[in-house]
């Protein structure tokens, strides 16, 4: 089966030569769920941004990143724009900064929806587009989608904003969804709801999923395979249950131990 995303010997460097990501290689097949694990600064998000050609100007990529069979490293922006949305879409950690604060939610979802419909040869008109927006909001289980569509991002809750961000990412029907720490800024209850929603949508649409997190229990609930990064280098990879129950690398052992200690502390306070 051809991979949706195939990263081979990826290196990311600053202009002064400092290496941020070193020799990262992995793939995500259609329908597969891969978790990218590591502490802050381990290179998880940079790897995800390299996958869709969204690296900052001061970072240079080398190696190969094939997204839906097309090379991303060194590709012109015009080619990358055709891949973004249709081949892969990203849900970012903090939707309040990812969403435009001066634009109503409905208009923000309508923009990628319109592009997809035009690409497919359709033109629903204003009324049809409003129905499409309402359907997109309903799909991510937002109540009163018409009201949400009229709201600005600051007028809805953090969990609702994250659902809007997911709706925007799915509006172009991507083959691969990249979720970059999508639950970190949410409370535990809302976090569980978002994870359940992602699980359902990925399963129903048959998408591949690259889920990025420092939270091992969260990755364990949604991913099938895990890759552990430390200081930009992969140190362990395998089925998520095996990696977390029987880690081989010392760094992974430390992460698992810290997660268990944290969970035990929470249980002791409950």
Helical residue percent?
40-55%
- What is the molecular shape? globular
The number of strands is: 10
Give me the number of helical elements.
Answer: 11
Helix-strand topology string = EEEHEEHEHHHHHEHEHEEHH
CATH level 4 superfamily of the domain at 5-95 and 176-269: P-loop containing nucleotide triphosphate hydrolases
Unreliable runs: none
Structural class: alpha/beta
Cα(first) to Cα(last) distance is 46 Å
CATH fold category name of the domain at 5-95 and 176-269? Rossmann fold
CATH secondary-structure class of the domain at 5-95 and 176-269: Alpha Beta
What radius of gyration results from the CA coordinates? Answer: 19 Å
What's the architecture of the domain at 5-95 and 176-269, going by CATH?
Answer: 3-Layer(aba) Sandwich
Q: Strand sequence of the main sheet, in spatial order?
A: 6-7-8-3-9-10
Give the overall pLDDT as a whole number. Answer: 90
**Main sheet record:** 6 strands, mixed
Measured by DSSP, the beta-strand proportion falls in 15-25%
């Amino acid at each position: 089966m051809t991979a949706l995303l195939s990263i081979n010997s990826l290196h990311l460097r600053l202009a002064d030569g400092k290496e941020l990501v070193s020799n990262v290689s992995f793939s995500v097949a259609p329908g597969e769920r891969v978790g990218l694990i590591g502490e802050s600064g381990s290179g998880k998000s940079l790897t995800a941004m390299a996958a869709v050609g969204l690296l900052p100007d001061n970072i240079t990529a080398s190696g190969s990143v094939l997204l839906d069979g097309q090379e991303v490293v060194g590709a012109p922006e015009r080619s990358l724009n055709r891949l973004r949305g249709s081949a892969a879409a990203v849900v970012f950690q903090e939707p309040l900064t990812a969403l435009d604060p001066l634009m109503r939610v409905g208009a923000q979802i309508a923009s990628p929806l319109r592009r997809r419909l035009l690409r497919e040869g359709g033109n629903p008109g204003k009324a049809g587009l409003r129905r499409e927006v309402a359907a997109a909001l309903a799909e991510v289980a937002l109540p009163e989608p018409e009201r949400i569509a009229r709201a600005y991002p600051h007028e809805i809750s953090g969990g609702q904003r994250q659902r809007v961000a997911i709706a925007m990412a799915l509006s172009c029907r991507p083959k691969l969804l990249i979720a970059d720490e999508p639950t970190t800024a949410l409370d535990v209850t809302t976090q569980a709801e978002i994870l359940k929603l992602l699980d359902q949508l990925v399963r129903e649409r048959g998408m591949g999923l690259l889920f990025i997190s420092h939270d091992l229990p969260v990755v364990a609930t949604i991913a099938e395979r895990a890759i552990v990064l430390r200081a930009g280098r992969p140190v362990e990879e395998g089925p998520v249950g095996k990696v977390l129950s029987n880690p081989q690398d010392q760094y992974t052992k430390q992460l698992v131990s810290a997660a268990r200690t944290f969970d035990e502390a929470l249980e002791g306070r409950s």
